[in-house]
């Protein structure tokens, strides 16, 4: 584990569930450029908590693509799959505060009962299992029913009060601005699942604190998720980094590049003769 540093620390944290594309290249280059401007360090972190989709060959490919772009980073590289016990401890801390509860609802049940959507457009969980009596919870857990553990957002925000975070504009050296976090618009998010003691939200705040990350550079599509991260940082007693939300690289239809949509990978571009300079020009850097 990396130790907190007195100098700025940034990170690029891809998931190894496919090959990197131009959107990833832009995000990585923004992160390394920001680290240079701040006189700090850029870390590589592998976010591989999804055991089904994460593949060792993609971990290797990430390193190959970033090296080809001319980027380097300190070793060893943190991999989330090696830190499940740490995330379980964080979840236990929230559970001890009475802020996690078991939810037995299926996706179809949530979709049928939801009256609104979250910032990502997914059905907003209506809190069906929030008030299950303890006896029913124990009975269903002992029976082995499919379960996920949700954060009681109402109880959590009542404990923390109004939340803010610090963000900077187009340059990480811009004057910081204070923004208000609105975690209530996410409802009771899932933080743990049966057999998996963490979620993206939980692991990312734990790891940013463990690595001493001072600045988080992320796409504008992740700006709303900062609401949840700031809330968890407060509940877990973790520091909150400064955030920078960069533009997205879009396809010809104006949509965000995506592994799931089969967006052309850096490896594909390299195979047809692209150079790192071509990539930089393509993403406007």
Automatic annotation (TrEMBL):
PROSITE patterns: AA_TRNA_LIGASE_I (PS00178). Gene3D superfamilies: HUPs. It is an enzyme of class 6 (ligase). Pfam families: tRNA-synt_1c. Keywords: Aminoacyl-tRNA synthetase, ATP-binding, Ligase, Metal-binding, Nucleotide-binding, Protein biosynthesis, Zinc. The keyword Protease does not apply. Its EC number is 6.1.1.-. Signal peptide: none annotated. GO terms for molecular function: ligase activity. InterPro entries: aa-tRNA-synth_I_CS, Glu/Gln-tRNA-synth, Glu/Gln-tRNA-synth_Ib_cat-dom, GluQ/Sye, Rossmann-like_a/b/a_fold. Residues 10-275 form the Glutamyl/glutaminyl-tRNA synthetase class Ib catalytic domain. Belongs to the class-I aminoacyl-tRNA synthetase family. This is tRNA glutamyl-Q(34) synthetase GluQRS. It comes from Devosia oryziradicis. The lineage of its organism: Bacteria, Pseudomonadati, Pseudomonadota, Alphaproteobacteria, Hyphomicrobiales.
